[in-house]
Write a structure and sequence with these properties.
The complex is a heterodimer of chains A (about 130) and B (about 475). Chain A has about 130 residues and is mostly helical. Chain A has four helices and two strands. Chain A has helices at about 15-35, 60-70, 75-80, 90-125; strands at about 45, 85. A two-stranded antiparallel ribbon of chain A has the order 1-2. The longest helix of chain A is centred in the last third of the chain and has 34 residues, at about 90-125. Chain A is elongated. Chain B has one domain (about 20-450): Amino acid/polyamine transporter I (Up-down Bundle). In chain B, about 70% of the residues lie in helices and about 0% in strands. Chain B has 16 helices and no strands. Chain B has helices at about 20-35, 35-40, 45-75, 85-90, 95-130, 140-155, 155-180, 190-195, 205-215, 235-260, 265-270, 275-280, 285-320, 340-355, 355-385, 400-440. The chains are: A mainly alpha (about 130), B mainly alpha (about 475). Chains A and B meet through helix 1, helix 2, helix 3, strand 2 and helix 4 of A and helix 5, helix 9, helix 12, helix 14 and helix 15 of B.
């Protein structure tokens, strides 16, 4: 180790507990809450079929036989069969998502680089 | 805090045991991932149809081949606990390392949650078939996670030896199902001609299927987490990782072939336990029992490996003060990162309790994907800062920078695939990492000892 080493402050027990709780709150507020509140998940649409039969649901005899082996009837299988993903692209949402991901990585690389120089300078000494 | 169990304060730091060989590395990688053949991969059928899923399986197989190539070179050179986390620390800097550590923890913890959820669902479903309706799966979720956490608490060698045995048993159950449906006799049990359809969403569905195509292989890079506990990292890590990828490619192809020949794609695309369901429609009780055991074993092996990997990443971050130092403790008797193991249990249990398998899986996939996006950038920097010949590498991957370019392009495509159908979840996950990064940069980083972040006996990086 060369040069003057940075001496970090010691973190007390209370600080460590606070930081641990902060991380748990972050996990539950940002990831868990949207999940249980139903704000996330597959963007799907379901088509209603009046009086569903295997034919009306687009199932050939082999498909119908396999559904029945699994314990389904046309009525109970109808929702599974008619639920489809909606791949309509909202260009603004796509642009926003791309900007967030790109901005995140730019932030990471920029600040990591700054911190990395501090690490290298302390480990190997200031470059002359 | 005692001087015997707290890393960072301890001059005579208790180290992790170097007891693992290539078979353990294989078991750690495949053990985590093999469950992907028993559940989760089939959501790619829901997003793009059966053929779309097969294309996704192959394309994402290419993504993981790039991951394995890059990871083998860097990890066989940076042989320290934490895998990609230790790589990021030495090559890119503390903030990136913090994020990579967090990707690993979240990917494995969510995968562990999904595994426990499947064990609970499967037991509940089998109980229903035997006339015991409405069996609550949640006690089984808690029992699974608690038992495996205890195993991990007690020691790494026992944990991974158990994994080796149950992973092998789960893999055998896939082979038994494959042979049991007589693939040499199409039309007898396998009905591909009648069950396979055109692409239900066209080519955009194929792209969308990439999201869950990741699930065929997610976690294979976990082999690198045990770098500090492997007897010969330069030999065991590339050997264990590459043989793991080959095992998974074979298992994925067999899985797709059997499941799409037995189940209508609309069912397959939403099933929680597709291989078990495939065994059910064969009408063979023996196959059904085999696949029940296989699915349970695969989920348990995966959860077991996930606890191992997530706790080691969390432990490494605690040891380096990226997280509270309290987590950097090694158990004085069992020499395991016991506090990290215990801290992550409630998170895994809570997400299991949601019962939302596809969404829990998506969180795991997204964390994995962010980690794969880091890899090409890391690789470029590694070769730029330490060109070939400047330091001793355990393994040098061929065709650089082609694997890095292909990996980056496939990662971008997979973000788009996730946006299709799971866009809100993608933004929630990004929001989580952005807030965590701001917290690290403007609060946590002040506790980090700068020079200690670089421990490899390498020369000064070029350009610094």
């Amino acid at each position: 180790m060369s040069g003057k080493a940075y001496r970090p402050p010691e973190q007390g027990k209370a600080g460590q507990i606070f930081d641990s709780i902060f991380l748990l709150v972050l996990v539950y507020a940002v990831l868990f809450a949207p999940l249980v509140l139903g704000l996330t998940g597959g963007g799907t649409i379901t088509k209603t079929v009046e009086e569903p039969t295997w034919e009306a649901l687009g199932q050939n005899p082999t498909m119908a036989a396999q559904w029945e082996k699994l314990g389904f009837t046309p009525e109970t299988a109808a929702e599974m069969i008619t639920t489809r993903f909606d791949y309509t692209i909202n260009p603004w949402a796509l642009l926003l998502t791309a900007a967030v991901i790109l901005g995140y990585f730019i932030f990471l690389i920029k600040f990591s680089e700054k911190e990395y120089r501090e690490v290298i300078n302390e480990r190997f000494g200031e470059k002359k | 805090m005692s001087s015997t169990d707290t890393a960072g304060q301890d001059r005579q730091r208790i180290s992790l045991l170097r007891v693992l060989g290539p078979a353990h590395v294989w078991a750690l990688g495949v053990g985590i991932v093999l469950v992907g053949e028993f559940m989760g991969w089939n959501f790619s059928v829901g997003k793009g149809g059966a053929m779309g899923s097969l294309i996704a399986c192959w394309v994402i197989g290419l993504l993981y081949t790039c991951v394995a190539m890059i990871d083998s070179e860097v990890t066989s050179t940076v042989a320290a606990a934490g895998g990609q986390y230790a790589q990021a620390k030495h090559i890119m800097g503390p903030l990136m390392a913090f994020n990579v550590g967090l990707y690993l923890v979240m990917a494995y913890t969510m995968l562990e949650a999904a595994d426990a959820l499947v064990v609970g669902d499967l037991l509940s479903s089998v109980a229903g078939e035997m006339g015991h309706d409405a069996l609550d799966p949640r006690p089984f979720v808690v029992l699974t996670i608690a038992a495996l956490a205890w195993l991990n608490y007690r020691g790494v060698l026992m944990t991974l030896t158990v994994n080796f045995v149950i992973t092998a048993a789960a893999f055998i159950s896939i082979v038994v199902l494959f042979l049991g449906v007589q693939p040499w006799n199409p039309g007898h049990m396998l009905q591909h001609r009648e069950l396979l359809t055109d692409l239900p969403y066209g080519w955009i569905g194929v792209i969308a299927a990439f999201q869950f195509g990741i699930w065929y292989y997610l976690g294979i890079e976990g082999t690198c987490q045990a770098a500090e506990e492997v007897r010969s990292p330069a030999r065991s890590l590339p050997y264990g990782t590459m043989s793991g990828i080959i095992t998974l490619l074979i298992a994925a192809t067999m899985t797709w072939y059997v499941a799409t020949g037995l189940l209508p794609w609309e069912f397959l695309g939403q099933a929680a336990t597709p291989l078990y369901d495939a065994a059910r429609v064969t009408g063979s009780t023996a196959l059904q029992v085999f696949l029940f055991i296989g699915t349970t074993f695969a989920a348990i092996a995966s959860a077991n490996g996930c606890i191992n990997d997530a706790s080691r990443a969390w432990f490494s971050m605690g040891r380096d003060r990226y997280m509270p130092l309290w987590f950097g403790a090694v158990h004085p008797r069992y020499r395991t990162p016991y506090r990290a193991i215990l801290f992550l249990i409630p998170i895994a249990v809570s997400f299991s309790f949601t019962g939302l398998l596809d969404q829990v899986i998506t969180f795991s996939i997204l964390s994995g994907l962010l980690g794969y996006t880091f890899m090409p950038v890391n690789m470029w920097m590694f070769r730029r800062k330490w060109p070939l010949g400047s330091i001793r590498r355990g393994y040098v991957h061929p065709f650089h920078p082609l694997p890095a370019i292909v990996l980056l392009l496939l990662c971008i495509t997979t973000y788009f695939a996730t946006f299709l159908g799971y866009g809100t979840q993608l933004l929630a996950m990004m929001c989580f990492y952005i807030v965590a990064s701001l917290w690290f940069t403007f609060h946590r980083y002040k506790y980090v000892r700068r020079g200690d972040q670089f421990t490899m006996p390498w020369s000064r990086p070029r350009g610094y």
